[in-house]
Amino acid sequence: MSIDVTILGCHSATPRENAHPTAQIVTIKNHTFLVDCGEGTQVQLRKYKVKFNKIKHIFISHLHGDHFYGLVGLISTFRLLNRETELHIYAPKGLKEIITLQLKVSKSWTQYPLYFHELNAAKSKIIFEDEKVMVSTVPLSHRIYTNGFLFKEKIGERKLNINAIANYPDIKICDYQNLKNGRDFKLENGKILENKKVTLNPPKPLSYAFCSDTEYLPEITPIINKVDGLYHESTFLNDKENLAKTTKHSTAQQAATIAKMANVKQLIIGHFSSRYKTKDTFLTEAQNIFKNTVLAEEGKTFKII
Amino acid sequence: MSIDVTILGCHSATPRENAHPTAQIVTIKNHTFLVDCGEGTQVQLRKYKVKFNKIKHIFISHLHGDHFYGLVGLISTFRLLNRETELHIYAPKGLKEIITLQLKVSKSWTQYPLYFHELNAAKSKIIFEDEKVMVSTVPLSHRIYTNGFLFKEKIGERKLNINAIANYPDIKICDYQNLKNGRDFKLENGKILENKKVTLNPPKPLSYAFCSDTEYLPEITPIINKVDGLYHESTFLNDKENLAKTTKHSTAQQAATIAKMANVKQLIIGHFSSRYKTKDTFLTEAQNIFKNTVLAEEGKTFKII
Question: How much is the pTM?
Answer without folding.
Answer: 0.93
